[in-house]
Every structure is written in structure tokens, then in C-alpha cells.
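Q&A log
Question type: sequence-to-structure
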Amino acid sequence: MLTLSNVGKSFGGRVLFENVSLQLNREERAGLVGPNGAGKSTLFSLILGDDIPDDGAITLDKRITLGYLPQEHATAGDETVLDLATSISPEVVELKRTLIQLEAEERTHEPAYHDARLTFEGFNGFHLEPKAKRILNGLAFRQTDYDRPVREMSGGWIMRAHLARLLVMEPDLLMLDEPTNHLDLQSLQWFQSYLRGYPGGILTISHDRSFLNDIVTTVYDIDQGVLHRYRGDYDSFLVEKEARYQQQLAAYQNQQREIVQLQRFIDRFRSKASKASQAQSKIKQLERMERIPMPTKVEQNLKFRFPQPKRGPQRVVTLEHIHQAYGDVTVYQDLNFSAERGERVVLVGPNGAGKATLLKILAEVIPFQSGERTLGNDVTLGYFSQHRTDMLDTSKTVLQTITGSRHRVSEQEARTLLGCFLFRGDDVHKSVSVLSGGEKSRLALVQFLLDPPNLLLMDEPTTHLDMASIDALITALKQYEGALIFISHDVHFIRAISERVVHIEAGELTPYAGGYDYYIEKSGATSAEAQLTQAQPEMQAGVVKAAATGSVRKTKEQKRQEALERQQRSKQKKDLESKVGDAEERILKLETRREELMKLLEDPSSYGGNRGSAIDWNRELLDIEDKLPSLNAKWEKFAEKLADLVDA
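Response status: OK
Response body:
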């Protein structure tokens, strides 16, 4: 479907990547990863034809359709949300406009109308609107949003509308650049479920580990200008990448020892007549040797100790009998909530349930109609929201913003910290006024962490951060000794940070005295996806499902049976995961040994000693070639069973 052959690209004398080769097959799900600036988005632009490679060739099958979701800045016009979601091609848009116009003019009897209708049916046009409504509902649009002009919506909702258009379109190859940035947790779980059944191929750039683990079966990693392919999800990729690094390091070290030994022989015997010919042979051997470069490893751990806030009281904030409404819509009635020193609380629940409203009430950003909000003595509060860029002085540079903070840090410390949040090299000398929205957000986060309050409220703090930066933020927040209340759609981040979960729905708060996995277990859901979606009404053909509204209660016997089924599925899943892992490990060992044997057999110097060694190597190689097909077949069998179990 998509083939890249020896593709290279440079900018301003800097080589982004070279000799990149990739083959993406139909229905393959692939993730493209790498550090910020590695060239992931550039590779996307080459595939899309928006740029041309310096070297190599990019080939797309002639008949495939391609859909692309950019990371930011999707267009928004006067069309409605539903019109945008159904605008799968210019031809369909024009046909729909023609039909509407002819119907308005009562010209449905004319041949032009029948021709347009027939062509529209050929595009499956009359099924587009119901399909679009189902997808828009899954992405948390309300029915009242369908007829709203897209330009009236925020940037995040505009991106969701464009995502809906792509899912309605169903291109053969779906290219997604950071698709989870604008989705809340519930919409993200729906989106992941939808993609698992997507009929085409997927190539995605994402910094969301949980999303990649759920979706992809192949990972392409751009590492120091070279593209490497790894089979499996993101966690498997991390394990395999570490193994690859250790193999490369061992090969480099072995070659360096060989070079030292050869050089010692040359230095010792080159002046002796009896050994001169041997020394000359060693010199030629050194000259012919293809040098293995020393592998480098990007350090992911943050070596910086963040300052700690002033110790607060045991009870940092309390809400009592809060009533909050927007016009006729009541969000909270008699709301009670409290948080204590050192707690890490995540707010979860359906879109529109009131998570952001609760955070704003706690931050005293919005007023409430009645009730009482009480901060503990000596509590300092910080609110990290979508308006956080107001914290920045646009007359300063990035570096000046950090070195000039109340907690003085050296330039080297500031550069180290900024580097973890994607400001590297000359980027630190940029004026704040020219930074993008994402860059300003990241800089505000760094500044915030340098002078933290003892009650920290954060709304989607991982947006615009890559994986290394998210790890840096996790490290910082694990050091943080104050109270933290946050909203996030990043499951990896939630799992790493949260110690208490509060589920919000229909104005009701349900606390869980444990982390995210504890919440999933105790809430009675069979998976994170089920818990996040089970209470959301789904509109299908205009009918609200009774089970989704909670009107159907389960009996004790039903719950017991479901628990037994969950236990059985969990046991089967663990058994299959073990078998898949064992097969992968054996395949990796055999493939590694096969490469070693092939190098030995291709090296003329291997035949200078005992000829029996070469015979043994050949036999071992043939044995490996016999074993690998059956092992790969076993792996595919177990992997398919595991995939079926997960999708069930």
C-alpha cells in the first residue's frame, strides 16, 4: 500500500534521516515514534506530497485513498459540524448542494436531479449522515452541536469534527498526527475501540503510550537519522530497542578490543623482518574493517530536583453544599468535596459531567450560586488551565523566563530542565512572544514547577508534551509534596500519578480510595473502556439504550457470573501473553544467532583455521532456518487468539 525506498531529507545542512525504507501493508497499524525534532512530521509531509525527499522514492498504490489529521490548525468555515463530518470529498459536497438546491426549487422531476441522486447513491451518500451522527456522538458531540457552524467552536472541537470526517470517509490509509491531543478520556476510549475495528491501514504519530499499546502492532522508530522497525506494541518496542542497543554496544566493544589487539601486534612486530609480512597483513585487515559506530543512548531521566512548596495543613480545601448552574442547566446540587495534604486525585467521568467545572470552583475561577469553599491555613493555590500562558512575560526569552524565577537556578540547570521540555539549543534564546501555543504551554509548565504551590490544580497537563517530557513531568510530580488534583486523558500519566480517583457523572461524585487500576477493579467494569463508557447514553437510530441510563439493575447472580467470566478471561489472557512472550523471545534469539552465523560464514577470515567450524556453522544455520517458520506460525496463532480475547 505504501513503500518508502532509501528516502533521505535534510534541512539547513542538518540531516533529519537518510536511507529510510518502509513498507506499510493494508490493515497494518503502525506507530511512528522518536524524539522531538527527529523528523516524524516531516516524514508525514513527504508521504502526503507536501514536500519532496532529497533522495529515494515514495510509492503509494494507485487506487488507495488517504486521509490525514494534522496535529493543529485544521480549517473551520461556515459549514455546520454535521456538514463537515459528511464532506468526505469535494464531489460529494457538490452533489449534496445540488440535490438540496433542486429540491428547494421543486425540480425533483428533472433528469438533472435523478442523475445527481444516482451519483450520490453511488458514493453511499444517503448513509453518510447516520454514520456521521454515530461517530460525532462517540466523539462527545451533542445533538445540538450538529447544526452549529464549525467556526463558532474551539480549536479542540474543530479538530474532533475533522477527525469525525476522516472516520466517516474511511480512507484506505489513515494518517494521524497526535490524534489524542484534543480528546477527553471517555472520547479517547471510544476512539481506541473504533480504531480496533477500522477496516484500513493506520499510521500514527503519538506520544500517548496507552494509545499506542492499544492500537499499533508495529512501531517505526526514528533514532539518530535511521528508521528501525519493531514488531509489537509500544511496550514491546521499548524492550526490543534496549536489546538492540545492548547488542550494538557489545558488537562495538568486541570490535574495539579486536582493533586494540591488532594495533598492538602491528606496533610490536612491524619493524621485525620475520614478522613484517604478518604485521602488513594486520594493517590491511584494519584498513578493510568496516567500523561499527559507538551506539548512543538518549538519557530519559530528569536529573533535576524541583523545589518543594511550603508544608500545608492536613485539610487543604473543602467544598460544602455547593450549587452550580449555567442558566437552566444545573451542574452540581449540594456538592461536597475535600482534599488533604499530599493527595493525588484524578477526576474522571463522561464529557460534560462537570470535571473542569469542579476544578474551576476549587480554583475560585468561576463563582457558584450557593455553598461554601474553604482553603486551609497557609494554603497557596496554583491553577494550570488552558489560560496558563497568561503567566508568561512576552518581553523575555525562554532562558530568561527560567533563570529569572524566584527560585534562582543556574543557566546550566535551566538548560537541562528546558531540554526535557523540548527547548533545546538555540530555542532557549527565542522570545516568548514568537512561541507557538504549545511552546508557551510547556514553558509555563516549567515555570510553574520551579515555584510550586502546596495545592496544585491541573487541567490536561500532558497536552503538547512528548514521551520524554511526560516522564519528566511525572518525575517532578512524584517529587512534589503538596496536594494535586488533576484531569487528564493520558492513561499512562494517570496510572503513574493518581492515588485517589473521583468519578463524576450527573452531578454526583463517587470517590475510590486507590489509583486508576483500583478504580477500574472496584467500579465493576471488565476494562477501562467499559468503565469509561458504560454510563454514557448512546444514541443509535434516535433511541437511548436503557442499560446505558442505569435503569436496568443487575442481580447478584449476574454480577457473580460476570466476575467469574472476568477471572477466566484474565487467566486466559495471562496464559496467552506468556506464550506470545516466550515465542517472541525464542524468535529473537534465533534471529540474532542467524545473523551472527551469516556474518561468520560471509567472512573469508573465518575459514583460515579449522574447516570443521564452518561445517558446524552451516548445520546450525540450517537448523535455525527449519525452526523459525514453525515458531513464527506459533507466535501468529497465539497473537491472534490474544487479539480475539482482547477484542471480545
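Response note: The chain has 20 helices and 20 strands.
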